[in-house]
Structures are given as structure tokens and as C-alpha cells.
Specification:
The protein is of the alpha+beta class. The chain folds into two domains: 129 residues, no CATH class; 27 residues, no CATH class. The protein is built from three helices and eight strands. Strands 2, 3, 4, 5, 6 and 7 form a six-stranded mixed β-sheet that branches. A two-stranded antiparallel ribbon has the order 1-8. A hairpin with a 2-residue loop joins β4 and β5. Bound molecules: zinc ion. Zinc ion binds next to loops.
């Protein structure tokens, strides 16, 4: 069920402020099937918007915070991600080809576009999209995450190095040593 709904009748050209909690349960549902999850240990997020009519379009500006949990790119552990970002989108009526006419005062190249239908603006998909946009390509649990621990059996032997060179490779080693000496 839609959680973030603005009734168009409530919104005029001077605009109206809204504030919605972003509950973990909503996040879990909205993010189903994604690699991104709600951080269930954190408090609710918050969606604050100012919605303003401009002809048939509605300009929505605001701020969204939420706490997410993704997989660390290096160690595959939990990486917590606090989203805290500004949002701006212009909603136009669906299937309206002249939606731009009344929005000349906006620099449309700078503004994201979306659509609405009927007499209300449902922000759920929009909020979900904004949250996903904030997830980095390679999230880390911490900046200096060292990645997965290397299992003992896969580690190179302790004496790994020149002394441990396969005897069959010794001639090659000698050649490379000679070349080095010649260069010096
Ligand atoms: Zn990590």
C-alpha cells in the first residue's frame, strides 16, 4: 500500500509541507528483490517535502533520510549506509503532452521528471528510487575493510620468495640476475 501520498486538492501555488516517517517495514517491502535492505536496528527514516503546484505540474522539493544495509564489496559483511539527501522532482500528469507549458520558470534540464495520475501524487516509487541512487557501486563496511580473511591452506608458504624457487626455474633465475648485473 502506498505510504507517501499527497492529495492534489491540498496543494496550491504557494505549496504545502509534508513530513512522513519512513518505517523499516516500508523499506523492507519497497526493497524486496534488491541487494539493499533496511537497517532494522536503526530508527525510522524521514521524508520531508514541500509540494507546490505550477499549472498542472507539481514541484516536489525536500529531504530524505533512511538507514540501509548493503553487502560490503570486499568482505561480504554488512555495510550500513545512512542516506541523507536532498530531492527535487517535477511531477507532470501522465499522458499530458503540454505539461511543460506552465513550468517555464524552472530550469527543466536541472530537474528530475516524474508523472502522476488521478488526483493524488504517490511518492513511494520516487522515494525508493532516490534511496537506491544513494547506494555506492562498491559499498564498504568500513573505509579500510581488508576483505575476506584468506584461509590458511591458500596462503603462500612462509618461506615464499627467492629462496623457495623451484629448482627447475633456477637457470631462468640466473639469467635474470645476470641481466640485472649487466644493466648496473
Ligand atoms: Zn567489509
Amino acid at each position: 500500500m502506498a505510504q507517501f501520498v499527497l492529495q492534489l486538492n491540498d496543494i496550491d501555488e504557494s505549496g504545502k509541507d509534508y513530513s512522513f516517517p519512513i518505517e523499516t517495514s516500508w523499506l523492507e517491502t519497497a526493497l524486496t528483490g534488491c541487494e539493499v535492505h533496511a537497517n532494522t536496528a536503526a530508527a525510522n527514516g524521514l521524508l520531508k517535502v514541500h509540494a507546490q503546484k505550477s499549472g498542472n505540474d507539481v514541484l516536489v522539493r525536500g529531504h530524505v533520510t533512511a538507514s540501509l544495509k548493503v553487502e560490503c564489496y570486499r568482505c561480504l559483511g554488512d555495510a550500513l549506509l545512512d542516506v541523507d539527501t536532498d530531492i527535487t522532482t517535477l511531477f507532470s500528469p501522465k499522458s499530458s503532452s503540454r505539461a511543460n507549458d506552465n513550468a517555464d520558470d524552472l530550469d527543466l534540464d536541472e530537474v528530475d521528471r516524474d508523472t502522476y495520475s488521478g488526483d493524488k501524487l504517490v511518492l513511494d516509487d520516487f522515494v525508493r528510487e532516490q534511496l537506491l541512487l544513494e547506494v555506492p557501486m562498491q559499498p564498504l563496511c568500513k573505509d579500510d575493510c581488508e576483505g575476506l580473511p584468506i584461509p590458511e591452506g591458500v596462503k603462500p608458504p612462509k618461506d615464499f620468495g627467492r629462496d623457495a624457487i623451484d629448482p627447475r626455474l633456477a637457470p631462468l633465475m640466473n639469467i635474470s640476475l645476470k641481466q640485472k648485473t649487466q644493466k648496473e
